[in-house]
């Protein structure tokens, strides 16, 4: 009888151990599969992050190069057609005529227009700094004054390019 009970206890312990080992192996297999899926997901996410970083970097470089490539020609076109409003008012030209005349009128004068542009930028920055030093209240005076000076300078350049002599009449 004791051997039957011992055999029964032995079978019970063996069965429980087998059940535990099977369950551990099952759990271990599921855990390994889950860890493998997690690793693939993390590696894939990291790869996407790296690709996105390269994409953003290349996009930024392309944007900067594109801006530089287009900025210079756009600035030159702006310099060449800046007098079209004067031509519309002064000569009564339509929009297209004023653009073409302004384009032709500025031929050979790009360096002078470049210097005017640099001086204009310096004047505006100086006016902003001066107005800011006066506790921002000075901007009420300096900015309109700087813009008026720029308008007069542009009108003076227009008259010089058209061959007319700028005359100030005393009232």
Describe this structure in words.
This protein is mostly helical and 171 residues long. It has two domains: 71 residues; 82 residues, no CATH class. 85% of the residues lie in helices and 0% in strands. Helix 2 crosses helix 3 and helix 4 runs antiparallel to helix 5. The longest helix has 79 residues. The radius of gyration is 40 Å and the shape is rod-shaped. The mean pLDDT is 83.
How would you summarize the topology of this molecule?
Layout: H1 2-80, H2 84-91, H3 95-105, H4 110-133, H5 139-162
Helix pairs in contact: 2-3, 4-5
Could you list some keywords that capture this structure?
171 residues; mainly alpha
Question: Hey, roughly how much beta strand do the residues contain?
Answer: under 5%
Amount of helix: over 70%
Q: How many distinct helices?
A: 5
Number of strands: 0
Low-confidence stretches: none
Number of domains: 2
H and E string: HHHHH
* Arithmetic mean pLDDT: 83
Global geometry: rod-shaped
Quick rundown:
The protein has 5 helices and no strands. The chain is mostly helical.
